[in-house]
Amino acid sequence: MKTDIQKTKIGRVVSNKMQKTVVVAVENQLRHPIYHRLLRRTTRFKAHDESNDCRVGDLVRITETRPLSKEKRWRVSEVLERADQVEAIKDQPV
Predict the structure, then answer these.
(1) What is the mean pLDDT of the segment spanning 55-74?
(2) Are 60 and 80 in contact (CB under 8 A)?
(3) Which of 38, 41, 69, 93 has its CA 20 to 30 A from that of 18?
């Protein structure tokens, strides 16, 4: 019996310089096995953005899909929170 449950992740867009592709950074926490301290790990995923409407700093939900290119296996399903326009302008180099 096959289940068609797709994996979803929530992360921030860190780059949108490619056409129809965004880089999403997903943060997760794990406990160190010996020192029991919380560690933060960040994983970057390339996700397909068909309409090119994601901006740097947006909070997005991505879902797993078939391989779309060499490194793209995720698709932006929805934008949960828009980044402030002022912050996005400040982050860009002059």
Answers:
(1) 96
(2) yes
(3) 41
